[in-house]
Amino acid sequence: MWKTIVRRVLVMIPQLFVLSLLIFIMAKFMPGDPFTGLITPETDPARVEELRIKAGFYDPWYIQYVNWIGNAFQGDFGRSYTFNVPVSNLIGDRALNTLWLSLLSVFLLYLIAIPLGVLSGRFHDSFLDKSIVFYSFIVYAIPTFVLGLINLFFFGYELGWFPTSGTVDIKYDSGTAGYLWSKFYHILLPAITYALLATTGIIQYLRTEIIDSKSMDYVRTAKSKGIPINKVYSRHIFRNSLLPIAAFLGFTITGLLSGSIFIETIFGYPGMGQLFIQAINGRDYSVITALVMLFGFLTLLGSLLSDIIMSIVDPRIRID
Amino acid sequence: MKNTETIELTKEMKASSPPTGFQVIAREFMKDKLAMFSLISLIIVISGIYIWAWQIDQTQLMRISLRDKLAEPGEKFWLGADKGGRDILGQLIVGARNSLSIAIAVTLITGFIGVVIGLVTGYFGGWIDNIFMRIIDFFITIPSLMIIIVFVTIVPKYNIPIFVLIMSVFLWVGTARIIRSKALSESRRDYISASKTLGTRNFIIIFKEMMPNLSSILIVEMTLNFAGNVGLETGLSYLGFGLPPSTPSLGTLVSYANDPFIMENAWWNWLPASLLILLLMLGINYVGQAIRRSADARQRLG
Q1: Secondary structure (DSSP) of A29-61
Q2: What are phi and psi of A284, to 5 degrees?
């Protein structure tokens, strides 16, 4: 087990290395240079030139790359040129917002998907099952941004049930109960949107798993011993099907990341996804490179997590 | 003599062997009313869009007329007008045509690359397989949506063919992986070994003997990819990194909703495009699922 994990981590290193090289070269090709934002009519061109030399703008690219990656290892991704703060501070704040949004989304996801999957499998071929399958099909087909906008339009603007952007009302002081409630209230609609979109996988999985286990020997044994049917489901079938669901967590993380770009843009939520779009529009290289590296790292971590959980839960799927 | 024998033989085979390929797919559609309905409406809607868009003059359409700013749906504009006073319905039709064309192009290109790489790596295995698997592993780990966005912003001469190419570079991986795993198991079948012993050239075995047996999986894969590509193109255009601003796209129309005033007060600017995307995605996915069921004997309805 440990051997496998160590090996998987070792494989991650060259992958991250190639990604860093790719993203560094791409950043070099971006139009303009990082000091464009600093130049105003009053700035002395010689001063800017000096800054460029000092920042290593004219060094050969491989020296720049080594410097960048060396600093990145120490958690220093340079300064953001549009926000004029160290990139790590900037991302730290935004990452916390994205983390809250993701935690609530995952919680709601399991809260919605598990009951639906269980019901659909238990009463399969009934009207209920057909409606659940139909629902999961629709949310599978609908693109993130379409559902996000439609939710925002109806629940945010038309019905006025939810705030339409931001993280918290300005009228509350940080630390108070009202502040926390307002924060929660602001992420609720984006989190529901995300949770709905991701339900299909879990519903499908639980449904087929439960239908399959109905005909298993252990279920028949339990039934013939006279155990009430509800208990057979909750104790035997459900427990056996539940653990692999945890493995979806890894994929969910990966999906959340790419979804966060859309969700955060639509709901005006200041997280990492929205930061990425702002950085692209502001040509803020240091922020772009740091974010792509971070997302790449998290994607790898997500798939590693899934594999580990899978191999613990189901010894047949050993990764080695 | 020999000819009649083969005809006799094929007749016999037709009578006794289980139905294959298109027959199965057709039967699956006959059994599933909703899939049939989706298929027919998709055909009508898509061909309608192409014929209609063909009659619209794009430069005329994109001309700004401030007098009609945000005109409500009515006699002059069936679906109203946008901030520049441009007809929404026209943009919807031309935009849908552009979005669909891009999705079709990307699907075909990635399908072709994916099939060739998947078949070759799956058939030969060994070091070729190893190299391509490392490349595929790499592509899976990268946050491709972000990298496509970065690419779009650094390409100097940005137009539709380049956009299609950028998308294709990152999207062949899934198809290649699925085709590879199927080709791996397929290449161990007896008919392949027999063909190898007979001295058939690898090229012929791969593309003439193995590929037809994987075609049902390929069709499923391509249909679902097509839906995914419509979603990705419109999504990128929605964020402002898809088609150039002068070219209408469904995503660009949806992005009008980013202005809270338009979102709240001029729903006709963005809602029709959102609903059209939703309907297209539902239809294509439904058709794809039906084909998938017919490719897998255990799931068939008929």
Answers
A1: TSSS-TTGGG--TTS-HHHHHHHHHHTTTTS-H
A2: -95, 85
Q: How far apart are CA B210 and CA B123, in angstroms?
A: 9
Nearest to A149 among B240, B254, B284 (CB): B254
Gap between the Cα atoms of A20 and A18, Å rounded = 5
Q: Token pair of B82, please?
A: 């946008």
Contacts of B6 (CB under 8 A, 6+ apart): none
Contact A221, A179 (CB under 8 A): no
Rounded to an integer, the average pLDDT of B190-203 is: 83
Query: How many whole angstroms separate alpha carbon A137 and alpha carbon A17?
Result: 38
Mutate to test the interface with B, among A11, A138, A146 (most CBs of B within 10 A): A146
Q: Is B257 in contact with A29 (Cβ distance < 8 A)?
A: no
The whole-angstrom separation of Cα A15 and Cα A197 is 29
Residues of B in contact with A287 (CB under 8 A): none
Instruction: Please tell me the distance from the alpha carbon of residue B290 to that of residue B29, in angstroms, as a whole number.
Output: 7
pLDDT digits (tens, 9 = 90+) for A262-314: 999 888 888 899 999 988 888 888 888 889 988 888 888 888 887 777 777 66
Cβ A269 vs Cβ A186: under 8 Å? yes
- Which of A142, A149, A262 has its CB closest to that of B257? A149
Q: In whole angstroms, what separates CA A184 from the centre of its chain?
A: 18
Model confidence pLDDT, tens digit, residues B221-258: 899 899 999 999 999 999 988 887 778 888 888 888 78
What is residue A163's three-state secondary structure?
coil
| Cβ <8 Å between B257 and A276 | no
Structure tokens at B217: 């999986």
